[in-house]
Design brief:
about 20% strand, alpha+beta, single chain, 22 helices, 5-stranded antiparallel sheet, 5-stranded mixed sheet, 24 strands
């Protein structure tokens, strides 16, 4: 019995020995694996534990006008970062951090919680553009709060008083919702991106590439040294087609009013100026805008964030008569149409009044245009029918986006029989066509659409694509704007073109609807318009309250054919198109004056300079060669080149946008 027990103990001992030997072999293998086979991998992990990447933010590219003058610049500032790879308890330190940076402690804790899903090496941007005392606080608490870091950033410096705000747009920090969208998958929290306007449209050009520096930190997260640095790549500069001097003139013209002004070179489609009122200050968006300030902007009934030049969809009123006249001529109706206007006319059992209650008397197409006779265009609309009207309006780009290189452009509305069936499941009634003939009813267009359409007619049917960037100035491979050089030709009979543009040139003369907007020596053609926003009956019921005042429109250009500039004005609540015309001619005059200051050719020995296609002599001789004044209101010169005196008062040109210089 005793011997049997001794034999069993020997077996157990042998088994234990083998187990111990196996464990030692396993440990030896593991040690060899760690020290030899995977040594480089673990050395890299150790390096990461002691090396911290601190971002270096890239400045966005400057935005310049067509002559290289600065519109949007940057200024240096410091931001406070919260380093999440620190060993500190960030939540516990939130109160002290908030106190030193003048933040709400609960908001700091909430931000820490919201970013818990992010990789530890990505810091949190706690506060931008910190003050000198906040910077001093961070430096003084390096030992207590090693998780706090400062970083130099370049913040946007926009023009003051909302100058050019809608065209430029603004930037903002990329949000959590944006990060979940495919177009922002390469961005990181804290990145600043364009949110509206040019800043958004050309964000990929303006936004640079961030760099970083590698810092050595100890086990407590404190920086004890620096390794290397990868510099940031600044964003590229962006040159607009806008002329700063014309932009200033447009801003001054519409100051204190609501509406929009947009100016374009109809030869190329280059936008020379664009204003929308009321405006906002994009400098408020350089850092995070408060919820109260944001709600104030979006709840404002005047919609200051709306770029009315491309987003206001309104009835164009009598400016639509330019389209009607062209359509009527092309269809062989307008050139022989004569009506007697006694203040109104009856169509389909309903009387439609003319804006001149006493009437215009005998009217043909020329008089109908420069005196804006409603009865003539009611009659023309009846003869054309809605589908033929829609055919020409659509051909000139109404009821569709122009393709301008700004985000969130709207389409507008150009009604037709098919449009009403598709949208309302109802038949189009012939009586509805009458109101469309004077730009009322269901017609709704944007200022940039109207400008482009009338511009095409003034150019003999040559229609271009509006754009705020010259495609030749863009980096190689940027293809989003390649279609801006496209040109569409809409057939216009030359005789009709001459007749219509000559009639438009009389709008600003004493017999026209906007004589107070006339500028001697400049061949300005155009069309006024007043558009109801409610029915006349409803307005009368409210005792003609200013809340329901008509919108004033004007679209004008110089010279009357193949113009160098076209300007469209929407004056909300302006009542009369002649008031809108005065605003437009201020911009046109600024353009002409600038051309005079930049002579193209000196006439030999004359003391005068030669200017192309701008000047007229409204006080010239009559057709019979006399100066008896019978035809003194006719502009004698309509094109070609003219000699003007060199000596004239010079107004200083802008050197930069207001508040940026």
């Amino acid at each position: 019995m005793f011997g049997h027990e001794e034999k069993v103990s020997t077996l157990r001992l042998t088994a234990v020995q083998y187990v111990v030997l196996f464990i030692f072999l396993l440990l030896a293998y593991r040690l060899w694996l760690l020290q030899v086979m995977q040594s480089s991998d673990y050395a890299l992990l150790a390096e990461k534990n002691r090396v911290r990447n601190v971002p270096i933010l890239a400045p966005r590219g400057k935005i310049l006008d067509r002559e290289g003058r600065i519109i949007v610049d940057n200024y240096p500032s410091f931001s406070a970062l919260l380093l999440r790879d620190s060993s500190r308890d960030l939540v516990a330190d939130a109160d002290l951090i908030a106190q030193g940076l003048h933040l709400n402690a609960d908001e700091v804790r909430l931000r820490i919680k919201r970013t818990a899903w992010m990789p530890q090496y990505q810091p949190i941007f706690l506060k931008e553009d910190i003050t000198p005392d906040e910077l001093a606080f961070i430096e003084a608490h390096k030992n207590e709060l090693p998780e706090l870091e400062t970083i130099m950033a370049h913040r946007r410096l926009y023009p003051r008083n909302g100058f050019m705000a809608h065209l430029i747009g603004y930037v903002g920090e990329v949000t959590e919702d944006m990060l979940n969208q495919p177009q922002f998958e390469l961005y990181n929290p804290g990145d600043v991106v364009g949110v509206s306007g040019v800043e958004k449209q050309y964000n990929s050009i303006l936004m640079g590439k961030n760099g970083f520096r590698r810092a050595i930190v100890n086990s407590h997260g404190r920086e004890v040294g620096r390794l290397d640095e990868t510099p940031a790549e600044p964003g590229k500069q962006l040159k607009l087609t806008v002329d700063l001097d014309l932009q200033i003139a447009a801003e001054e013209a519409i100051e204190g009013k609501n509406g929009a002004i947009v100016a374009m070179d109809p030869h190329t489609g280059e936008i020379l100026a664009m204003v929308s009122r009321p405006t906002f200050d994009p400098n408020d968006f350089r850092m995070r805008i408060s919820r109260d300030e944001w709600n104030k902007l979006i709840d404002d009934p005047d919609k200051p964030l709306l770029n009315k030049a491309i987003q206001a969809q309104l009835a164009p009123g009598s400016t639509f008569k330019v389209i009607m006249a062209t359509a009527g001529w092309q269809e062989g109706i307008a050139q022989t149409l004569h009506v007697h206007c006694n203040g109104g006319a009856t169509f389909y059992g309903r009387r439609f009044g003319c804006w001149v209650k006493s009437g215009h008397g005998e009217v043909e197409i020329t008089k109908a245009i420069f005196q804006s006779c409603d009865v003539f265009f009611y009659t023309l609309a009846e003869k054309l029918g809605i589908d033929r009207i829609a055919k020409y309006a659509t051909a000139f780009g109404l009821g569709q986006k122009t393709g301008i290189d700004l985000p969130n452009e709207v389409t507008g509305v150009m009604p037709s029989e098919e449009w009403k069936i598709r949208n309302f499941k109802q038949k189009w009634f012939a009586g509805e066509t009458i109101s469309v003939g004077i730009g009322q009813g269901a017609v709704a267009i944007t200022p940039v659409q109207l400008m482009r359409a009338v511009g095409a007619i003034s150019m003999g049917g040559r229609m271009v694509v509006p754009h705020v960037i010259n495609p030749t100035n863009l980096p190689p491979g940027f293809v989003e704007t390649t279609h801006y050089t496209e040109v569409k030709e809409v057939p216009i009979d030359p005789t009709g073109w001459n007749t219509i543009t000559d009639a438009l040139s009389r709008v600003l003369l004493p017999e026209g609807t906007a004589p107070s907007a006339h500028i001697p020596g400049i061949d300005i053609a155009g069309k006024t318009g007043s558009a109801q926003i409610v029915s006349l009956a409803l307005r009368a019921k409210h005792q003609n309250s200013s809340e329901f005042a008509q919108n004033g429109w004007f679209v004008g250009f110089t010279p009357r054919r193949n113009p160098d500039i076209i300007v469209c004005v929407l004056f909300e609540g302006g009542e009369h198109g002649k008031l809108a015309a005065r605003l437009a001619t201020q911009v046109i005059k600024a353009y002409v004056d600038k051309q005079r200051r930049q002579p193209t050719k000196m006439a030999a020995g004359s003391g005068k300079v030669e200017i192309g296609s701008l000047w007229t002599d409204p006080g010239g001789a009559d057709e019979d060669g006399t100066k008896d004044g019978a035809n003194r209101n006719e502009d004698r010169l309509q094109g070609g080149r003219f000699l003007v005196d060199v000596a004239q008062k010079r107004v200083p040109l802008a050197v930069a946008a207001p508040g940026v210089h």
